[in-house]
Design a protein that fits this description.
The protein has a domain of about 35 residues. The longest helix has 14 residues. The model has no long low-confidence stretch (mean pLDDT about 90). Helix 1 packs across helix 2. The radius of gyration is 11 Å and the shape is globular. The protein contains four helices and no strands. About 70% of the residues lie in helices and about 0% in strands.
Length: about 55
């Protein structure tokens, strides 16, 4: 698994997008934020009810 390192500014914009964005933007923002918190792709997949491949992409 590749660990995504976010700057403070990137994290701010992703958090904002996850709350105010629509559809895929909000969904993908959440995946990146969860990954950044150190959660594995398989755990993200299980948590969100998606495939492991979707959690990685």
């Amino acid at each position: 698994m590749i660990k995504i390192e976010l700057t403070t500014e990137e994290k701010y914009w992703l958090e904002r997008a996850s709350k105010t964005g629509k559809g895929q933007i909000s969904f993908r923002s959440n995946i990146v934020l969860i990954d950044n918190a150190g959660v594995s792709a398989s755990a993200i997949a299980k948590m969100l009810g998606i495939t492991h491949q979707t959690a990685l992409s």
